[in-house]
Amino acid sequence: QVQLVESGGGLVQPGGSLRLSCAASGFTLDYYAIGWFRQAPGKEREGVSCISSSDGSTYYADSVKGRFTISRDNAKNTVYLQMNSLKPEDTAVYYCAAALVASPNTVLSSEYDYWGQGTQVTVSS
Fold first, then answer.
1. C-alpha 44: how far from its chain's center?
2. What are residue 89's phi and psi, to 5 degrees?
3. Furthest C-alpha separation in the chain
4. In a designed cystine with 33, which of 66, 67, 102, 109 is the match (CB 3.0 to 4.6 A)?
5. Which of 28, 34, 31, 30 is nearest to 6 (CA)?
């Protein structure tokens, strides 16, 4: 059974950090581009970051560039999203997704085949 499971969300103060994990089961992440998306209440889903399967190249939305870092550990079949300098506007449900074929330098939800259930990130004092 193909499954992606996110973890690591929670409540953090502005300026704090969290590391999200996306663990895959039922398939090997090596061959997939992995994207992170987020959706805040009343807003459309936003592509945050992605990492390619081929050369590990990464993409970040302008809203998170310089603060978030995506990485993958193929041995653990897991992708991470390190989030630093968090802001209240980062509050959202964060989802990871896997795509066999993904366009470079962007993260389009329509290209992703498998999705996790999401993890809540709340940035508040």
1. 16
2. -75, -5
3. 40
4. 102
5. 34
| Phi, psi for 31 (deg, rounded to 5) | -95, 5
Amino acid present at 54: S
Number of residues written out for the chain: 125
The residues, ordered by sequence, that sit 6+ positions from 34 with a Cβ below 8 Å of its Cβ are 22, 50, 51, 53, 70, 72, 79, 96, 97, 98, 99
pLDDT tens digit string along 83-97? 999 999 999 999 999
Phi, psi of 108 (to 5 degrees): -105, 120
Q: How many CA atoms lie within 13 A of 85 on its CB side?
A: 7
8 Cα distance to chain centroid:
11
85 Rama sector, left if φ>0, alpha if ψ -120 to 50, beta otherwise: left
Q: What pLDDT score was predicted for residue 61?
A: 97
CA 78 to chain centre: 11
What is the rounded distance in angstroms from the CA atom of residue 62 to the CA atom of residue 97? Answer: 20
Q: Which two tokens stand for residue 91?
A: 């509050």
